[in-house]
Amino acid sequence: MRGGRRSFVKEEIEVVQCAVCKEEMSSHDFTGHNINSHNMLAWLEGTMPLDLDNEKLILSMLNKALKSKKRKVLCCEICGEEKKSAVGFITHKQVCGKSEEEKEQLKISCEVCGKSIMPVSLKSHMMIHQRQSTSDDFDQTIGSPTSTSPSTSRSEHNGRKPKRAAATRAKSRMMDFLSDDGYSVPKKVPKHLNEPKQLYTDMETHGWDSSPRLLQTWRGFISLTGSIMCVYSDCQYRADSIDSIRNHLSACEYIREHNMRFLCNVCLFQHNQESEILEHVLTEHESQESFLSDAPSSSDINSTSEAEVESARPAVKRQNRLSIRPKPPGPQRAFNKMRFLQNTVTSMGKDLEIYNTALQWTFDFRLASYSDKVFPDLVPSKTEWSLLLENLELYVPRATKSIPIQFQSTSQGMSGLPHQFSIFEGQVIDGVSTFFTGGPVWAMEWCPIPMHICLSENSPPSEYLAVSTHHNMDDTFCVPKCYSFPNIIQFWECGNLSSKSVLQHPKLALALAHDYGTIWSLAWCPSGAYDINPESSKVATQSWKRMGLLAAGCSSGDVQVFAIPFPDELVCHQNQRVLPVYKSKPSLTLVTNFTEPSQCTRVTWYQGRGHGLIAAGYCNGMVALWDLETLPPLLWDAEHSTLKPFQCFQAHLTVISALSFNPEYDGRFFMTGSHDRGVKFWDMEDLSAPMTHHRRGYVTDGVWLNLWISSITSYDDAFQHEHTNSTLHPVRDYGYKPYPLLTQNSVAWCLSYNEWINATAQGSEAGEIVVTFSSQLMRGLDNEKSSIDKRIMASYTQLKKLISGNSSTKQLGEVVTWKPEPKNNKNKGKKTAKNAKGKGKRHAQDAEGEETIAASLYTPEAILMERNPQYYADIEKNYGLCVCDVVKGDSNKHKLPEEAKSRVRLSGKMHPTCSDFYPITSINKVVWNPNIGRFFWLATGHQSGIIRIIGMHFMQNETLNEFLIQASETLR
After folding, report:
1. Does residue 132 contact residue 278 with C-beta atoms inside 8 Å?
2. Does the keyword NAD feature in the UniProt annotation (predicted)?
3. How far from chain centre, in Å, is Cα 790?
């Protein structure tokens, strides 16, 4: 190396030739060529060739090739047949390309039984004779132990280490001692002698179809394929249960033509000779110990009835590699804990489709749990409901007009000029029911309707949506305090929402005035409160026809239960032509015994049989539980209609933001979520500690899934920016860990789960509605990459600047984008001052001047001058909204816009928000319609006071239509 330059010499590549195929290649490529083309059985031209007659050498080379290959198979160079073992490959190479006569000539005869076998199979064949001879020797020597000399060779004991002489003598003396007392030593039979008898049966023996091992095999075929085929040849009968196949076997017409006698209980292989079936069991199913350990002994079978043997479900153990029991494909493979799902689930599916099995599950649950009449004493009294005429402005929300809102869709474009709604105005715009409530929407629920009324073709009912808003657009609340002020609960009539009907303009049908402040949560009684015939009530003359029971969690600290009448019953407002605002006392008040009152943030009503439980969560982290069916005297105050909780405990450290019951087990289990970043599952019988506690992020909402042993929770993105996801949480990590289900790039304020179609919807502060149509949620989630394709962006909201124009028409301009905070100037000034050290005085003064200017940008006066709008008045003057529907009810699910899926693949691609900007784009509440035949409608409540009812009917298929027809016939 001279002059600082480095010289390189190019390495020459050596060319070699394969001695088997005569192909030339570089020396570096020969190893891969030898493994892939010749299974490590090739050598270089000019080197020592391999000894292909050395069996041990060939086996070692083939095993090395199996370990090196990505696909663990050995491929024949002549015919291309693949083998998974080295012995099988050698056997194939001996007969590859040869005729049947040549194959017979290669076989050799066994010296013991005289059977003709291939040379490679001789070793395994002789092991069978060795086991038989060992069993005969054992039968002769059992019960009469003899001393073994230390010099006895290991070969005389079948390769096992002989027992020490002292141990043998001690055992003999112990037997003599016990025999004096009349004790007889039971004969112990080696394990491998019992194995063959358990793995095959004699079909001429009475009760052969009750073999525990055979019953287990049949159950496996039912769980994987759904049916069992008759064991007799030429019979094509299939059964879906063990009782059916056993009844058929006793009367099958092919019994006489069947010439096989013995049946393998593992793979159902048949043969007419016991020696052949024994050899098949020992060679093919030698390692079936995991199944044999589950099979009961003969004494247990004799003491157990046949019905008990059939009903006993064997413990599920790991499948052995050598077993030929059919395995499900990859997406169908499940955790052992969720094996029961294979009876109903045939495929997880990669396309965007609904989970059809959930339809029948939900229908069966409602048939068993929902009733026609509950709480008959809680009725809307005619004397207590009065039309509000005075001080109406105190109860109605303050905002009389909405900000300009423009609607567009990906397929149709803009709908025209922006709309500015008046308070309580409703329209149908581009197939979407839209109305203005006057304040930020924070509580919203659909009124439940009995299934037989929803499916009635003669008089389909109207759908009602209960809504509660803030009184002012700028209302804020402090956690430790309680608030009581006038407000209303709105009931909007949305018309008949069946798939065959035409959308009607939504209208405010009823408003309930109260003085309990803001309603943070609403919950309808799931069933039994919808009066069909008013004559059925004992007090029909004194009460209105009841539409439902509504529980409201109030900022005043109590839970109020209102008996809501049908709006058609109240006609006072129609005569006077005023707003239908009525005032009434609650039918029941659920109070607490806290030392200091706290706001009620969440309330939920138990969906199981009777609906007697109500749970509420509070700002102080407490959870209270009431039982409406018992009304014990110590808790019930009949004079004031108040009920105290039978259980109250500290669930979290701060605000309860998620609360939901498990619909099974009489409400014993429920989940809670809080702002303390915890998600907990509780058992009501032991509230000292939660069953499961997940700690992930600032919980904003959550729901227990009715069909699965898990819940879904949404979070604030403050702790994991661009990495926050609404998460699926299993109870006690049942089969999988918490799984990210829905993406977000801002605060996800709300969640809603649709049990009919197994769908989940999420609304965020950025104004995005994300929906996922999940498959089963109990297995395979860790490996289900197709779950990303099941998410879609239903709609999103953009904030636009308002262009000044005529007073009657307003136009929206460019989209507002969030600007980063001005940190560069401040950092630049510090860097200049630091670098100015050691330089001239003039440069130091310039650096200090720049630093002073940069610091002045962060004075309180400068921040207030250029800060973002933080009040609704500033938004109303200068901004408007643009709501874009990516998918609509008439969309084609096979041709959805690209942005419907691309926007929700990564959290970073979704819209962000600005923390110091008034959240005008926020979606605070989303609710699926729970009624049968209407469950494709999703109501979305916005911070701007707008509520939109979006349809997802593009997911409807033929299976759903057939289900609705069958459900209607069942209910009829």
Report:
1. no
2. no
3. 12
Query: What CATH number has the domain bearing residue 492?
Result: 2.130.10.10
pLDDT tens digit sequence for 708-759: 888 899 998 876 677 788 888 888 776 677 888 888 888 999 999 999 998 9
Q: Is the pLDDT of residue 5 over 80?
A: no
Separation CA 521–CA 927 (nearest Å): 12
Residue 566 falls inside a structural domain: yes
Show the CA angle centred on residue 953, arms to residues 950 and 959, nearest 5°. Answer: 150
Specify whether 206 is located in the same domain as 104. no
Q: Which two tokens stand for residue 555?
A: 């900022």
Lowest mean pLDDT among 364-378, 771-785, 845-859: 845-859
* Per-residue pLDDT at 645 exceeds 90: yes
Asked whether 120 and 166 are in contact (CB, 8 A), the reply is no
Q: Is 358 helix (H, G, I), strand (E, B) or coil?
A: helix
Residue 580 domain boundaries: 369-798+884-962
- Listing DSSP states for 380-429 in one string gives -BTTT-EE--SSGGGTS-S--BPPPEEEEETTTEE-SSPB-PBTT-EEEE
72 & 208 share domain? no
Cα first-last separation, the chain: 98
Question: Do residues 124 and 88 lie in contact, with contact meaning Cβ atoms separated by under 8 Å?
Answer: no
262 and 395: one domain?
no
Q: Which of 248, 275, 302 is the last residue of a domain?
A: 275
- Contact partners, residue 549, CB within 8 Å, separation at least 6: 375, 378, 524, 525, 529, 561, 562, 563, 564, 587
The answer to whether the CB of 778 falls within 8 A of the CB of 799 is: no
Q: Which of 275, 302, 323 is the last residue of a domain?
A: 275
Domain match, 652 and 545 both:
yes
Q: Specify burial of residue 7 (Cβ count, 10 A radius: 0-12, 13-18, 19+).
A: exposed
Residue with tokens 């050899």: 279
Q: Is 752 exposed, middle or buried (0-12, 13-18, 19+ CB in 10 A)?
A: buried
Residues 586 and 437 in one domain: yes
Q: Exposed, middle or buried, 394 (CB in 10 Å: 0-12/13-18/19+)?
A: middle
CB-CB neighbours of 176 under 10 Å: 8
**pTM attached to this predicted model:** 0.63
Based on the fold, state whether residues 204 and 104 are members of the same structural domain: no
Q: Where are the alpha helices (DSSP H) in 142-272?
A: 165-180, 191-199, 212-225, 242-250
In a domain, 774, yes or no: yes
Q: How many domains does the chain have?
A: 3
Q: Would you say residue 453 lies in a domain? A: yes
Q: d(Cα 813, Cα 802) in Å, to the nearest integer?
A: 6
Same domain for 429 and 559: yes
Q: Among all chains, which residue has been given the structure tokens 């990859």?
A: 330
* Partners of 672 in the β-ladder: 659, 680
Say if residue 93 is in the same domain as residue 224: no
Angle between helices 242-250 and 212-225 (to 10 degrees): 120
Separation CA 213–CA 198 (nearest Å)? 7
Query: Has residue 409 got a pLDDT over 90?
Result: no
Asked if residue 127 is part of any domain, the answer here is no
